[in-house]
Amino acid sequence: MNNRKSLYIDTEALSTLALVKAGLISPVEGLMGEQEAKEVDSTKMYKGVPFPFSFILAPTGDKNRQTLQMLKKGEKVDLINEGKKVGELIVDETFKIDPRQRLYNIYGTYDQSHPGVKNTLARLGEIAVSGEYTVKYPLITDNINRIEKMINKTGAKFISSLMLAANPLNRAHERMIRQAVSDSDLLIIFLRKPFTSEGLRYDIRHNALTTFVDNFLPRNKVLIIPFENTYIFAGYNELILDALLAKNYGCHQLVVGKNHGGLGLYYDQNRLNSVFDLCKNIDIHIKTVDEYVYCDTCKTLVSTETCPHGQHHHVHYHSESIMKLIQSGLIPPSILVRKEVSANILAALFPERFENLQEMHYSLMPGSGLLEQQSEEQFYLKLIELYQTSSLT
Description:
By secondary structure, the protein is α/β, with parallel strands linked by helices.
């Protein structure tokens, strides 16, 4: 009979535990005890490498709190996620934490209007547990295997990486991707997969990105990897953790846009440092890319650093604004989003939108005269072509 105690963890905690156990946030390789956690929170360093806050497990809930209060050193505990056992932990110690301070360490604020603070507060308890643990999480193992397989297949020597939300994928993203592909043997795009439901569903973003990669980039030069964007990859700490993750997955370079969440300046020990001062201890090259805009005089995508024309000539790639068009069912202009990507997203977002799709197709579109079944995606592509017909505009 098994009288072993259980701790209940959500998938976000499981994903993070698995990342660490797989060595992907190395040098952090396990849960920190009380003294170690305090030291990391104070120094922002771990084993000579920047690490912005302690790595601890403090699950919320009355059941968990009662269990954590009774645990003894050396006791074995089952880790339960969504009703299934996903791992085990051998208790070293339990200790109280201050959730408010923890949130401040992660996000730099305790303001509960901040979505990250609000989400993490709801899943953070007041007692942490440390000790050796094992977890099963196939996604992480699959990622590692796919990357190793691609490196072996291509013989890639210099591997670049991009952390991308692609929410939605736009032309500026495409330019960044092309640039990264051109100066590396292999580009790994870590497509962010958050634990919230904001923006486009992950499968829609993945399909749109795959449409672009498969049809418009050289074969075997790009690999898309799902990257579960857990709470530790947040705010001004994001770049440090992105760099650690990319390095531990085997990448030599991380390409970031200058609007990346982890860039910018922060105040530290009476002097202004850029986040790059911290990242210099992580053995990966961080390359920044200028902001891209569409210039109506240059008639193409340009860097804001090199275009001689003023802001009034520039169309910006603001993801939120493009997203509002798409969520309203409107097709974004092709200078913002490639037509194949727009068609892919709209067909997925508004399935069976038109009652008589075939009838509309034959009424509005030029055709071969043959009766062919047309998909919603093909309908959008033809519609975009009509929008781009310029003889009467």
